[in-house]
Amino acid sequence: MKNLLITGGAGFIGSHLVRRFVRRYPQYHIVNLDALTYAGNLENLSDIEDQENYTFVKGDICDRELLESLFEKYKFDGVLHCAAESHVDRSIADPLAFIQTNIVGTANLLQTAKKHWAGHYEGKLFYHISTDEVYGSLEMGGGFFTETTPYDPRSPYSASKASSDHLVRAFHHTYGLPVVISNCSNNYGPNQFPEKLVPLFINNIRHNRPLPVYGEGINVRDWLYVEDHCAAIDVIFHKGRHGETYNIGGHNEWRNIDLIRLLIKLMDQKLGRPEGTSTQLITYVKDRAGHDLRYAIDAGKLKNELGWVPSLQFEEGLSKTIDWYLQNQTWLDSVTSGNYQYYYEKQYAER
I need a labelling partner for 335 at 20 to 30 A (CA). Which of 118, 159, 169, 325 fits? Predict the structure, then answer.
């Protein structure tokens, strides 16, 4: 049995990735390391927490002693590194927290993997999961991000992720550490912490609260369903070429205001409200500092080399996402109240 470390596995993308690997690969023992900060929620994994090939460890990737002990105990064959501070607005308010987790934490993981694998790299892999925000901003109609697009990060968040990407490549080129990197577009789907646009607006429409739109709402993002993202990670982990970068995108660009109007349309239908009722909730607010105009991914390399393409059309994925939140309103209320942290930390502490 191979032992794999997934960091940040109680978060949004991480929890979907943990579930996928635990269920699809009984020959892997998955160790989920998560610090359970505000966005980490063990309730996301309640359906697999008792699986024999799954272990949860509460801990911080900045804790070198903990990493040393875990590598010593489990002799990891692979690392899938999801753990990160990821919200741009929070990075503007507190950039040092992003530097600590995203840069120092990644460096700790790389150094620990290098030490414990000690040149015996066959069958080992360090997979770093990153973001398209490292590439900066595109003009409207101005092409796409590719794997060779120069880095031009514009926020403390994207700068910290760009730094961690560079560290991963440096460990590959300097020490021969087997690595892959993927840079993905905006994710959406079940279990996302409701500070991000899609779950925040679903929850606000549900409660008839204002829908804050930065600037004029013309900023463009490429949207990717989280389970499609995890399927791409799966194929890259198993078939990707070491030392390579793969962009993962949804082929799915939307202006923020158009996405919000689609959300309103679907939510009003599902809540039995007259069409357009929730449009009155749109509230334009001062634009975000350094707000990138447009992100768009060219995922052709991933398609041509490894055969991955997204499985869902956007309206289908968005409808599926809304249904999940409306069917799991207790989860949503627990997360927005903060009660989820106390209950699950207490439950694990008593085991």
Answer: 159
Q: Is 295 a catalytic residue?
A: no
pLDDT the model gives residue 292: 87
Catalytic residue, from 54, 127, 157, 340: name it: 157
pLDDT in tens, 198-247: 999 999 999 999 999 999 999 999 999 999 999 999 999 999 999 999 99
Known catalytic membership, residue 25: no
| Active-site entry in 34, 133, 147, 227 | 133
Given the residues 49, 60, 132, 227, select the one marked as catalytic.
132
pLDDT digits (tens, 9 = 90+) for 250-292: 889 999 999 999 999 999 999 999 999 999 999 999 998 888 8
The list of the chain residues with pLDDT below 70 reads 338-351
Q: Is 133 one of the annotated active-site residues of the chain?
A: yes
